[in-house]
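Forum > Structural Biology > Help requests

Title: Can anyone predict the 3D structure of Fucosyltransferase?

Hi all, first post here. I have the sequence for Fucosyltransferase but no way to get a structure on my laptop. I'd be grateful if someone could post the structure tokens.
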Amino acid sequence: MPALTSRTFLKYISRNLYCTLTSLLVLVIYYGINTYNLSPYKTNEWKVEVSTSVVKIKSDAIPELNYILLWGDPEQAPFCHFGEGRSVFEENNCSCTNCYVTSDRNHLQDYTQFKAVIFYGPSLDDLVSRNQLPRRRSPHQLYIYLNLESAANYPVCTERWNGYFNLTWTYRLDSDLVWRYYEFHNESGYDVAPRASVYWQENKANYRNEDLAEVVRGKRKAAAWFVSNCDTTSMREDLGGQIRQNLRNYDFDIDIYGDCGSLLCPVSAMDICLMKLEREYYFYIAFENALSDDYVTEKVVHALNHRTVPIVFGGANYSRFLPPGSYLDAREMGARRTAQRIAELIRRPNEYIQLFNWRNYYRVRAIAPGIQACHLCAAINKRPVPRNTTIQFRRWWTPLTSCRDVIIANLH
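Reply #1:
Sure, ran it for you. Structure tokens for Fucosyltransferase below:
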């Protein structure tokens, strides 16, 4: 064996040093890539460990699927609408069906391996109090804030959630994903509303529909209200009572169904109640339980799909949600003027029918909860998937007055 010369020794050392430095550089780059967005995940009141480890996925997992973890009770609405697995995407004929939903945090052995984790807004305080939030997260995960309840009823009054979520999924029209209860489609099939900016077709022709005219001729009662929450943040029950009192001056009344009235309409018989609404009533009371931006629920659909005019009350700009001239806005008009207008329209059937003029240009379609999952899967399939965090989450979600009320309540 030849003697090891100094020149050979230097070449040997240089080669090994080069390999070592190259390996270290690769590790540094890999770590940097995987932790470049670590800081947005640090909230003001706790730090979340960012996991960059590679965990072997269970053998029965399908690599091309996007796995979505529901971080909460799967029986609770709206999680209950998603079910388990891929069925919600397949049964609703979603454009993307390569998503898999589960509430099993061990489905992939390590919950940091899920593509997305969904948190339900009203459950956040409970998760914090029980120390049930994730302790680790991957920089490749999407944390999604889902909330269908109003910001007024479920405010976020702490800065701890700033920078925590990557996507927002709520009723608000400026959410990353908007949970819609219905859509208006024009004659071309394009959904025009609800949107933050809407162009409504100008009403040029009188609405003529003999079938509707026949239905209107059969109506005998002023308004119906299906309601069971009798003590609300919006105090809708007070306004409803004032309208009712004023309406009696014109020999009309509001029939109240549910826990807040004397008439019955169980959920199991809702279809029958809605047919009764269409057949007997001119107006439907669609009052929201809170006055929050864009908070418009499925109540208006009851009226629109059953040839009845909605009377709305809420914190939304209703021109983003409903065609002009298709509704009465009780918050804008007040109790006395609303009652007066109801009586006028009942006594002028031809004028009342023109409140359906929007049917010349649009069709309204209720959106089933399962369809919402289609939007979720489509968003997760986007390339690149958005990974920005909502830095000023509290300021975006919560009206200051709601937090003030929470502070006052806590003091007492």
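The radius of gyration is 28 Å. Confidence is low (pLDDT under 50) at residues 28-40, 406-412.
Shout if anything looks off.
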